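Hey, I'm writing a tutorial for new members on how sequence and structure tokens pair up, and I'd like a real worked example in the thread rather than a made-up one. If someone can provide the structure for the chain below, I'll link this post from the tutorial.
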Amino acid sequence: MYGDRINSKGKSRKFKKIVPGKCIFPVRFKGKIFNECINGHTGKWCATKLTKKGTTDTWGYCVDSSVINAAQTLVNLKRSKKNKIDKLSTNQIVNKIITPTTTTTTKAMKNVHQDESSQTIHPKTPSTSMRASFIADPNTKIVRNVGGVDGLHLMTNAFSEEIEKRLFINNDFFLPSTNSSGWQFTYEEQHKSGKRCHSIPNIPNPFIPDDAYRLCNLVRDTGLHNELVTPDYCLGLSYPGKESSVGGSEFHMHFDSRFKWGESVVGVTLGQGCIMHFVKSGKRVNIKLSRRSIYIMTGSARTEWKHGISKLSSKNLAGFPSYPDWNPLGMRRSLTLRCTKAVSDAFIEKELEKNPDDKRLQERLEEQTKYRPQLTGKRLTNADLSTLRRKAKTDLNMILAYNTNIRF
């Protein structure tokens, strides 16, 4: 691992204490010992020189050594008189390598086959030409339009239990957690409260935790939804289970605002299964969400059906396997990944500028123009809407410049 000047946004920073060099581990930081790169507001970093006390003297942003070697090779090539390569600095070349442009239009759908009788899709192992490291579990299954809810797609056994545990205990997603009153809860305190608790990652807008980007790429790579726009919002939810004082928590029926959020919503279930219900015109459909499952709501599932989570009571959990040892209180945790409406619109518009004859992009934009972007339930003035759209374009460019092309 190598420390360099380029941060996670692709910008080269020039501070006296930022000195490129090989990462040195272990390093003492804020009273703790670290043997790997440390999370920072502008990217992961490491020490490149230590003080006598083992703390950081100089530092740099973490870059894999293979990237540095590749960049140096290009630098050597550009210096050769036989090669006509633009005169780029080493930092500029590294920047181009470590910040690939993110795309949400992968051709992963070519790597699935469909059983038309059951509307079940079994992901095939992606070819070596794909950038994904994902190899489908033989038990992984994708079901389209679940329970007759058009646009609701579900993937079961989406990832391993090892990854599930990693997500479940990830402090970026779930701790500290807050409820509507702003109280802070630990895992045990959440269970004791019996209330559904919300947790929004303490990460600068418009970014989300790296493991959330990995989940998004899993959604695309498996073909669950290859049109997913990279989210700029991540919500962690903790649901005390049947063992809690109130016998389980729930989430009443609601819409995810069609004016605040974009064209799709992704949900991930961890630690304990549950029943999710959808209601439209008096019709109710119950869907079983097992551990390690991922669902996505698009189309009418997103805009016409209300949804909620049934109480995690003994009755409703009767058909689910017991919770794992690392979740001793039987809590369900979930991740909700959404893109704000203005950013989602900006992405589709940007793609349409590059592909003006793309019928599918035209359809998506036409559908989204039905819903004028808002920040709350109140309609924005034209001036405020223009300001929101400008900010959305800036946020989108920041997301596209960040290396979201990462996998489990």
